[in-house]
Design goal:
The structure holds 2 protein chains of 2 kinds. Chain A is α/β, with parallel strands linked by helices. Chain A is 34% helix and 25% strand. Chain A has 18 helices and 22 strands. In chain A, the strands form 5 sheets. In chain A, strands 6-7-8-3-9-10 form a 6-stranded mixed beta sheet, with helices on both faces. In chain A, helix 15 packs parallel to helix 16. The longest helix of chain A is centred in the middle third of the chain and has 16 residues. Chain B has one domain: ABC transporter involved in vitamin B12 uptake, BtuC, CATH 1.10.3470. Helices cover 76% and strands 0% of the residues of chain B. The chains are: A alpha/beta, B mainly alpha. The interface between A and B is medium-sized, with 36 and 21 residues.
Chain lengths: 520, 349
């Protein structure tokens, strides 16, 4: 057990959490592949990575929600067998989930003692006293008597944090805490976290936002596709070094995944503008401004790559263009005709198609067959239906043809989509959208989470489509994908597009910086 | 894939029935009755006597109609719990209109119109929940459930007040003369409601499986978000489905007034809605599977009544069997889903 490395020896005992070789498999996915992760007392250690990188799974292992298939966990130097969130809490590890676990109709104090009452009768005055102690110590201010549903999201999050502290947690795990916050609320949260580590608490911060990670962390561990790819110490670094480290992180996060490359052919892109977006402003689902007056044009047969760290307005941009989201200001014109705020029907009739990255949520219906999903958008047209009756035969034929063309592997067209692999589902979505011969195709992360073969197929298919004159907006957090496919590249940052330039003129590092909002 | 899962659900429904009967046998033993004798009485009287068969087939008609409406709604992911209210409103409108219409119109025409009146009555009772759901997303489970109470009290008031037949003592609508009621299927004493019920359930089966409307409601029921993204008019489908669903309950009301009771009576509530909800679940929302199951459910009700006198077992015993069937079925579903890897823990992912 005793380590020989002398300088590390003193630090070893300081690890409040030490996870070694954690492996967790789900059907078809290796979510965590021998990950080492540790946390010192009084530090903020960030788990950074794209969606699906395995961050939340790793923390669910720590909080006892999942049992690891392999690996060991020790807490404060002692091996720990964490079988439930209750066990984790007893060891002083408290998790603050992305989705809150508060009861909206109860007050703050009531929520905090909920499930932690030790006596038959509630002693709310005692609870309140404890609560006030925590609040004055950490600067977390909330009215203890307020009813939870009256509170803003930011305040509710504070209640969650207080709740975990009240149960005596020394290690706080925060899962994507800023994803629900306004920029201002996020700032407040960072201040609180800094205060927490002053009172000897330790924080594990999960995020996919690089800039946040760099700003508040003492250490960053980067995960990609279930593997730990980098661990970077930031404490006590000088500004310049920090810059260099940042590039290192960018490389780790978005760097090369081995995908066989095809040479980019030079194509003649017509000068004819198909789509024009002017001063587009729109809100996200929480009512914050997600797009702030962005403008660009798209030419016939062109692929415009939109790079950026997720959550900078990607989804909102795609939805605004494809008629799924109301815009507040600005204009979207297709061949000179406005399609802004005209709805999905109008956009798709005019030839705007959308391949969503929420494949099972928005893209298809898992419990229906492949064939039925293929006609999800065209079922009202002949030959798929006539006089309101579906034509089963032509639906199956249509589907078989597309299955062959797109190399979708399924025993027959009536196979349920739930039984297909992720790659085949993505091909199904692409096939459906392309079968309508769109003028503009909007793709979000089209190869996210797919194997190399399928990735290659999908990228080639998108490229092939542009030869028919289809213009493509490729929104992707995969920088390699953007650089490989795009004719021009724009970077989306906080709802604005920073610089659009031809892709052979841009450098990877520059895009990486723009993705963090650093302009030269 | 779909074929296999259909066989599996047929098997699990069958097993649920057997397990319920077995548990029922244990219960009978504990109170000192001979299960073999009780089941003998139940099955022989319910399935092998003329009376048992006839009564069972008559009972099937409203259950089939109500189930048609339920399947339509459930497949669209809309939980119409308001069958009782919709049934009563349909029934009382028919009870009120029937004596006059049958007198002035040719028999066949009058019956068709009365069927329509019943359907519209049930539909009317679904309007408020449908609009609230489609416009403002109000939970239809609560609104339809609440409309039951309103329907029950409204019909009771109507039949005790404005629509009451003043010539008799009990509060009821005027009796429809025997020759004005639903005719029998030739050579039997079963009225044609059974035929109508079977037509309803087959029509629903075809609508769901073969029409664009059915396609839209299935998409909506399986994945509301995908329905919106596929440009399906979600509010239109929601309203139509709930209205039609209510209509079928109202039609069942017309069936019972015209075929069985011949009038609308105060405090009358056969409770088809809550009997049929477990039934359509056991049928896995498949119209064709509802036909044999509705036969079995009706048989339990009728057989239980006939048996209770002979075997000295209260009629509530068959309700226990019904409840157990549903419990076992739900348990089976749980294990089936768990085996398929769809279980509660996935929510935490």
């Amino acid at each position: 057990m005793e380590s020989v490395e002398k300088p590390m020896n003193s630090e070893c005992s300081e690890y409040v959490v030490d996870m070694k070789g954690i492996t967790k498999r789900f059907p078809g996915i290796l979510a965590n592949d021998h990950i080492d992760f540790n946390l010192r007392k009084g530090e903020i250690h960030t788990l950074l990575g794209e969606n699906g990188a395995g961050k939340t799974t790793l923390m669910n292992v720590l909080s006892g929600m999942y049992q690891p298939d392999d690996g060991e966990i020790s807490v404060k130097g002692k091996p720990a067998d964490i079988r439930s969130p209750h066990d984790a809490l007893a060891l002083g590890i408290g998790m603050v989930y992305q989705h809150f676990t508060l009861v909206p109709t109860l007050s703050v104090v009531e929520n905090i003692v909920l499930g932690y009452e030790s006596h038959l009768f509630l002693d709310l005055t005692k609870a309140e006293k404890g609560l006030k102690g925590i609040m004055s110590e950490t600067g977390l201010g909330v009215d203890p008597h307020a009813t939870v549903w009256h509170l803003s999201v930011g305040q509710q999050q504070r209640v969650e944090i207080i709740k975990v502290l009240y149960r005596g947690s020394e290690v706080l795990v925060l899962d994507e805490p800023t994803s629900v916050l306004t920029p201002f609320e996020a700032e407040e949260l960072f201040k609180i976290l800094k205060k927490l580590i002053l009172v000897e608490k330790s924080v594990i911060f999960i995020t996919h936002k690089l800039e946040e990670a760099v700003r508040i962390s003492d250490r960053i561990t980067v995960l990609r596709q279930g593997k730990k790819v980098e661990e970077i110490e930031l404490r006590g670094l000088k500004e310049i070094d920090a810059q260099r480290r940042m590039n290192q992180i960018i490389r780790a996060m978005f760097g090369r995944i081995q995908i066989p490359h095809t040479v980019r052919e030079s194509r003649d892109i017509s000068e004819k503008t198909v789509l024009m977006v002017r001063e587009l402003t729109a809100r996200n689902d929480m009512g914050f401004e997600a797009l702030r007056g962005l403008s660009f044009t798209l030419r016939r047969g062109e692929i415009l790559g939109i790079a950026g760290v997720e959550g900078n307005g990607q989804k909102e941009l795609a939805e605004a263009i494809t008629g799924r989201r109301k815009i507040k200001k600005g204009e979207i014109e297709l061949d000179g005709t406005s399609i802004a705020n005209k709805g999905i029907a109008c956009a798709s009739r005019m030839g705007v198609s959308y391949v969503t990255d929420d494949r099972m949520g928005e893209g298809c219906v898992g419990n229906l067959s492949l064939a039925e999903n293929m006609i999800l958008k065209g079922f009202q047209q002949e030959p798929f239906s006539k006089y309101h009756f579906l034509n089963r035969r032509s639906i199956a034929q249509h589907s078989s043809r597309l299955m062959e063309e797109f190399n979708i592997k399924a025993s027959d067209p009536w196979t349920r989509v739930n039984a297909l692999s992720g790659g085949n589902i993505q091909k199904l979505l692409l096939a459906r959208e392309l079968s309508t011969h769109p003028r503009v195709l909007v793709c979000c992360n089209p190869t996210h989470g797919l194997d190399a073969m399928t990735t290659r197929f999908i990228r080639d298919r998108i490229k092939a489509e542009t030869r028919q004159g289809t213009a493509v907006i490729l929104i992707s957090s995969d920088l390699d994908e953007i650089l490989e496919l795009s004719d021009r590249v724009g970077v989306l940052f906080r709802g604005e597009i920073l610089s659009v330039s031809p892709s052979d003129e841009v450098k990877r590092e520059e895009i990486g910086k723009l993705m963090l909002g650093i302009r030269n | 894939m779909i074929q296999i899962s259909r066989y599996l659900s047929a098997i699990s429904s069958g097993l649920a029935i057997l397990a319920a009967l077995a548990t029922g046998a244990v219960l009978l033993l504990t109170v000192g009755l001979n299960p073999a004798r009780v089941y003998y009485e139940l099955f022989s009287r319910g399935m092998a006597t003329h009376l048992g068969i006839t009564e069972t087939l008559i009972k099937m008609a409203p259950i089939l109609m109500v189930s048609s409406g339920l399947i339509l709604a459930f497949r669209a992911g809309l939980w119409n719990i308001g069958i009782e209210g919709q049934f009563l409103i349909g029934a009382i409108l028919v009870g009120w209109a029937a004596p006059t219409l049958i007198r002035v119109l040719p028999h066949g025409v009058a019956l068709l119109i009365l069927g329509l009146v019943g359907f519209l009555g049930g539909l009317l009772w679904a309007v408020i929940p449908a609009v609230l759901k489609a416009r403002w997303g109000l939970n239809e489970i609560i609104t339809t459930l609440m409309m039951n109470f309103v329907g029950l009290n409204l019909t009771t008031w109507l039949v005790k007040g404005p629509l009451r037949d003043q010539t008799v003592v009990p509060p009821q609508t005027p009796v429809i003369p025997l020759q004005g009621r639903l005719p029998f299927v030739p050579f039997t004493r079963i009225h044609i409601g059974l035929v109508a019920g079977i037509i309803c359930i087959l029509a629903i089966y075809i609508i769901i499986k073969k029409t664009t409307f059915g396609f839209q409601l299935r998409v909506l029921g399986e994945n509301r978000k995908a329905a919106i993204h596929s440009n399906i008019n979600v509010s239109r489908v929601t309203i139509l489905v709930l209205l039609i669903s209510g209509g079928f309950a109202g039609l069942a009301g017309a069936n019972d007034v015209l075929g069985v009771k011949g009038l609308f009576q105060a405090e009358w509530n056969p409770g088809y809605g809550f009997a049929s909800i477990p039934l359509v679940c056991l049928a896995n929302f498949n119209g064709l599977a509802v036909i044999p199951l509705s036969y079995f459910f009706s048989f339990l009700i009728v057989g239980g009544e006939l048996m209770s006198r002979a075997a000295g077992v209260p009629i509530f015993f068959v309700q226990v069997i019904e409840g157990l069937m549903f419990l076992y079925f739900a348990g089976g579903e749980y294990f089936r889903k768990r085996k398929a890897g769809i279980h509660g823990a996935s929510i935490l992912l």
